[in-house]
Amino acid sequence: MKVDILSSEKDILFKILLSREKRAEKQKYLINKYKCSLISFTLNIPGATKDSELYRKIHKEGIKEILRVLNNEHLPILYKEEIYEITGAECYICINVDVLKLKELMVTIEENHELGRIFDIDVFDSNFKIIKRKKIYLKERKCFICNDDAIVCRRNNKHTTEELLKKINVMASDFFMEQSK
C-alpha cells in the first residue's frame, strides 16, 4: 500500500513539473500570437494536491476580480482561457496595455483581496519577460502565516505544508462564508 502511495505522489509531482513546462510554452505561444501583455494566473498551493472544488472556487474568484479590475480600467481583453487540470487551475488573459500599469493592477489584487495572498498573478511583457515587483518599486510578497518574506520562508521550510494548507482553508472558508451572507 505504501509503495502505491509513493508511486502516485511521484506521478502527480511529475505531472506538476510537466504542467509548468506546458504553461511556459502556452505563455510564449499567446504572447507571440497576440503581441501584447499577458496575465498568467494560478494559485499558490503547496503540496502535491493542486486541484479540488475549493481551489477551483478560489481560482474563479480570482478571475472574477481580475476581470472586474480590467473592466473598471476599460481595458479590452484580446483573449481569455481557463484550464482546470489535476495539476491546478490556470487562466491566461492577453491584453494590450502598458505592462507596468498591468503589473500594478495585479499586485493591487494580490495585496488587497481577501484571497489575494493565495493568488499567483504573473504578468509578462510582449518579449516574454516576467515583470517582477521590484520593477514597480515594490518588495517581494510576504508569507501569509508569519508576514516574513515568502521566499525566505519557502527556502527555509519555515512552515509545514499542513500549516500552509490549513491557513488557506481558513482564509477561503472565512471569505466564502462572508460572501454568502
Spell out the blueprint of helices and strands.
Elements: H1 2-34, E1 37-43, H2 53-72, E2 77-85, E3 88-95, H3 99-112, E4 119-124, H4 150-155, H5 161-179
Antiparallel strand pairs: 1-3, 1-4, 2-3
What attributes does this structure have?
four-stranded antiparallel β-sheet; globular; 17% strand; Alpha-Beta Plaits; alpha+beta; 5 helices; 181 residues
In a few lines, what is going on in this structure?
The protein is α+β, with helices and mostly antiparallel strands. The protein has helices spanning 2-34, 53-72, 99-112, 150-155, 161-179, and strands at 37-43, 77-85, 88-95, 119-124. The protein has one domain (2-139): 2-Layer Sandwich (Alpha-Beta Plaits), CATH 3.30.70.260.
Report on the architecture of this protein.
Strand 2 and strand 3 (about 90-95) form a beta hairpin. A four-stranded antiparallel beta sheet has the order 2-3-1-4, with helices on both faces. The protein is globular, with a radius of gyration of 17 Å. About 50% of the residues lie in helices and about 15% in strands. The protein has a single domain, classed as ACT domain (Alpha-Beta Plaits). It is built from five helices and four strands. The chain is an alpha+beta fold and about 180 residues long. The protein has helices at about 1-35, 55-70, 100-110, 150-155, 160-180; strands at about 35-45, 75-85, 90-95, 120-125.
CATH-level-4 superfamily name? ACT domain
| Topology order in helix (H) and strand (E) letters | HEHEEHEHH
> Structural class given helices, strands, pairing?
alpha+beta
Low-confidence region ranges: 1-5
How many H/I helical runs? 5
What is the total domain count?
1
| Gyration radius from CA atoms, angstroms | 17 Å
What is the CATH topology descriptor? Alpha-Beta Plaits
- Distance from N terminus to C terminus (CA atoms, Å) equals 44 Å
Mean pLDDT: 91
Number of strands: 4
